[in-house]
Amino acid sequence: MSATAVKSISVKLDHETRLRIEHLAKSRRRSSHWIMGEAIQQYVEREEKREAFRQAGIRAWNEYQETGLHVTSEAVDVWLSKLESGQDIEPPECHV
Hints:
Blueprint: H1 15-28, H2 32-67, H3 73-84
Helix pairs in contact: 1-2
């Protein structure tokens, strides 16, 4: 199946939600199918980003558990303040 192939799927929605979707579709001059597809696509993209962020946090925690390397919040605050003021400086060094 090609990347552009589209396949139907059935979703059960309560009456109020269906009416809301139809109202949005009418006001945006789109079909209710387009509204639902767009909503699902945006949800999936957002949740994939959220999961990637969560996995990065887990990897960072595991790395910290293994190495003990870290940067204090004070050092990060100083670094971010300098970046905000326009200085192009290296991030603070990690330490145990």
